């Protein structure tokens, strides 16, 4: 998937990166038992405006949202998650105009990327305006901004009338939530949750910085912008993007990355595989397609972690560009790689 391959689309009209329009997604939610009603969205928006927290669905993972312009509200995110101040937040917007309103610079490349890929799982890191509190950006002069494609997220932001800062709605370094049940398991009644059903993409957005007309990849996602060299987080300093901690996306159960069954330590754990089956106390076969794999990945880790087995072994997927984001999440979640400490 190249930078230029996506057809441009406007809010609520063009197809998102996953082949459907936000309006069509809204109609499907309304016709099913999934999705909150208008009153629930309005109540959540009012809570955001008043400085509270709300968990809400996006196409990637569920977010823990607060008014991005309210420093004390954003502090509640850090406190509830146990998130270090060196890890910045992504600010979610409902339109390109809202994005322009929180950044100090909006170069031509940002306009082109936004029109081609938004709404969708792409975050742009740009110089921030002073209206964005430093707590949102870990003290850095840049802010990550994106327009999600999930209709509930867009409706919430539009109803709140403010940009919404939101990391994943889980404890810091834990497995990201892709259902409302995952959020409730992490936080109980500490936060209200808008239930929009399972997330379709399943892992976090691609994050790129725009510097001097060039793109720098800060975090890989399922949306690829070509052959960009991933950047590493500076040691002991604020990270330029979320998800750059060495240990992240991790279940409580140790995760082992293996080439195949021969690397399993015993038969007592859970084995997650694509092509090479094995005997284990629990086995789950994953899709061979990268996008379908990503959509199930965190949900499978949540389920297996709840079973309290001694280990979860994951067969390594192909080392090809379409699997780069999945490799990144596996590496940060893992304890060992074929017997080596991860």
Describe what this molecule looks like in 3D:
This protein is of the alpha/beta class and 342 residues long. The chain has two domains: 22-219, Alpha-Beta Complex (DHBP synthase), CATH 3.90.870.10; 255-341, no CATH class. The protein is 27% helix and 17% strand. It contains nine helices and 15 strands. The chain has helices at residues 22-31, 38-49, 71-81, 96-100, 108-117, 151-160, 180-187, 290-305, 324-333, and strands spanning 54-56, 63-67, 90-92, 122-127, 142-146, 164-165, 192-193, 206-211, 214-219, 255-258, 270-273, 282-285, 312-315, 336-337, 340-341. The strands form two sheets. A nine-stranded mixed sheet has the order 7-1-2-6-3-5-4-8-9, sandwiched between helices. It has a six-stranded mixed sheet with strand order 12-11-13-10-14-15, covered by helices on one side. Helix 2 (38-49) crosses helix 6. It is globular. The chain starts with 21 loop residues before the first helix and ends with a strand. Residues 1-33 have low confidence and may be disordered.
